[in-house]
Amino acid sequence: RDCLVMRALITGGYGFVGRHLAKYLASCGDDVAVTYVPAKSDDPKNPAMQHDKENRVELPRTAQSMALDVTDEAAVSQLVSLI
Length: 83
Prior knowledge:
- The chain has helices spanning 16-27, 73-82, and strands spanning 7-10, 31-36, 64-67.
- It has 83 residues and is an alpha/beta fold.
């Protein structure tokens, strides 16, 4: 790929594939934002709150992280207009 810098929004950015994609895109110099399902901070099913040290792929420091319910059309529209 040539020196094009992309802006990427990854829904499910704390999931297995999302974390790897975010890491790869950031290593290419792209501007990366990831979303996760908003949940209570003590919800063990929320991937953003899990602490599996062995299999964890850390998000790049440069990646923006934000809560987003993709079923909320207004919230998705607002987020896309900001990015």
